[in-house]
Design a protein that fits this description.
With 92 residues, the protein is an all-alpha fold. The chain has one domain. It is built from four helices and no strands. Helix 1 packs across helix 4 and helix 3 packs antiparallel against helix 4. The radius of gyration is 14 Å and the shape is elongated. The termini are far apart. InterPro entries: MFS_trans_sf (IPR036259).
Length: 92
């Protein structure tokens, strides 16, 4: 259970960082939290993804191989497409 939470915590900034334009464009349409808090949350996750993404990928490449890290990137691109599709369908 802890590993699932940790992997979700580590992957969410990477996914949000890649979908940051979609997240910012959908901020005005959400009504879950106030707009100023939503902008802060999305900005924080975006910057966290920019800072953590290369470090995590480099760590994985160092521990396994470069092929594994590039495979992970390909998987994250597919996951990114799924998340973006889900977000657009839910909000729009």
């Amino acid at each position: 259970m802890f590993c699932k939470k940790l992997s979700g915590l580590l992957n969410s900034p990477v996914i949000i960082e890649n979908n940051i334009n979609a997240a910012f464009s959908l901020l005005g349409k959400q009504n879950v939290m106030p707009l100023n808090m939503a902008v802060s949350a999305v900005s924080t996750l975006g910057y966290l993804g920019i800072l953590m993404g290369p470090a995590i990928i480099g760590f994985i490449a160092h521990k396994t191989s470069l092929y594994t890290s590039f495979g992970l990137l390909a998987g994250l691109v597919v996951l990114q497409m799924c998340v973006a599709t889900y977000i657009y369908r839910k909000v729009l």
